[in-house]
Model the fold of this input.
Amino acid sequence: MSFEKNIRGECVRILGAEWVKDDPVTLYTYRCDGLTLYTAPPMGVLFPGTVQELVSVVKLLHQHKISFIARGAGTGLSGGAIPQDGSVIIEMARFKEVHEVDMINRTITVGPGVINLRITEHVNGDGYHYAPDPSSQKACTIGGNVAENSGGPHTLKYGVTVNHVLGVEMVLADGELVTLGANHFGLPGPDLLGLITGSEGTFGIISKIICRLTPNPEKAVTMLGIYKSVRDACESVSSIIGHGIIPAALEMLDRIMISAVEKALKPGFPLDAEAVLIVELDGLSDGLDVEAEVVEKLLKETGAITVNRARDEVERAKIWRARKEAFGAIGQISPSYYVQDGVIPRSKLPEVLDEISAIGKKHGLTVANVFHAGDGNLHPLILYDYENPQEVEKAHAIGEEILSSCIRHGGTLSGEHGIGIEKAEWMSELYSGNSLDNMQNVRAFFNPENLLNPGKIFPQPGRCAESKSGTPPQQASALNKPKMVASKSGIAV
Ligand SMILES: Cc1cc2nc3c(=O)[nH]c(=O)nc-3n(C[C@H](O)[C@H](O)[C@H](O)COP(=O)(O)OP(=O)(O)OC[C@H]3O[C@@H](n4cnc5c(N)ncnc54)[C@H](O)[C@@H]3O)c2cc1C
Done:
């Protein structure tokens, strides 16, 4: 289908020629997101700047039955913004406005194109921040965060995006503008806001978001446990949580990752360590040092050879920079990486990490690890050369075996990066065909013709019965397939 022939002229009329692009460089740039293993060019890229423009282009695309995808910064790691069937991309980067800061209700209302970190920067002077802090927070947008229900190092204590979003304005697949939620908790009725958070851009295009603000803690203590074995570091994780202490963050880096961040950022991590564990405690000043002493003791009891405490904000920032820029540091040791996002019960960390290392060795590729240990959310980074087709194939195979291992150990497919196209076929490992049908019926309520971000989250029809890991689906549905599709007017507030 040709963009030129179908709708280009109409789009230019609505947006202006500057904001309608289908030149080869743009189509190449938008052919993938952060998951570079898969690529597909869009039909064209549109850059609306107002809600009215957004509604108009969505109505136009709907009228012509052309599929479309919202895109934020394109940092997604599961291919959610890849236009695999030549969809039109609607780039939301121009929705950068901070509409309102309401300190009494502790909320901030922003456009979806606002970069995550900018929200915290906007309110930090008043002693507040936006808690979910994906490591990509210098680049990713809040719209993408809501679509993916993003997490981050500090979501162990503070919760993920769904716990910090109070309302959204959203354009449905046919161009209808709806609002969900408000600047306070507790609207009656089913939690539609919870439903759209994490729906990976398949339920609507978010055009405004009301975020909850969190007061900055009075004090934070950041420690670095240094280990001779990954197993010992895993023992420390279990020990801290087992003692009823929930740190603000509990993050692990293995030896390969340590060498990469040392080359790129020089945080002073020991190159002969097998693992380091970043433990951050925060809260009221009173009692925090006592808690830190308890944690230090637990770390040492479980095998930490040294525990260093950041002495000031400069040292603390150095540790966090090394953690948050760790993926980028991989460029020092490999031309490319493919990151997985499986989740396992914390108690299984040692076994599964051993298995991941063995899987990498079997295929002859290195796997580095930097992850949210407190959540059991693994991020194995498979190092490969994108110009070597055999290594690309091996990277795919290792990724599949890692997912399979997570599922066999009672875990799941994604902690925070979403399902996208990457793991859509894996959904039938977790859910019965009946459950998947039920979920798709919910999607069909918001997006009945599947024009909005098609091909994401769910397996292609007919694939549900196949099992990749050899285990039966874990979450068989007790529900029967619903017969109805409710009236859409019920969502508009
Ligand atoms: C180095 C690096 C580190 C990362 N660390 C983390 C981490 O710690 N935690 C974490 O959770 N993720 C992490 N990610 C993944 C990624 O940053 C998040 O998924 C982020 O939320 C994506 O935001 P984005 O603006 O880039 O969205 P995109 O990649 O542009 O889009 C992602 C999905 O959101 C949808 N979408 C985007 N905007 C809208 C909108 N306005 N309305 C509806 N749907 C929309 C898209 O259609 C797509 O399905 C990391 C990625 C990188 C590259």
User: Anything to note?
Assistant: The longest strand covers residues 219-227. Residues 33-34, 69-77, 80-81, 92, 112, 134-136, 140-141, 143-145, 147-148, 150-152, 200-201, 205-206, 327, 416-417, 453 surround flavin-adenine dinucleotide (CB under 6 Å). The chain has five domains: 3-91, 98-215, 219-328, 334-408, 424-480.
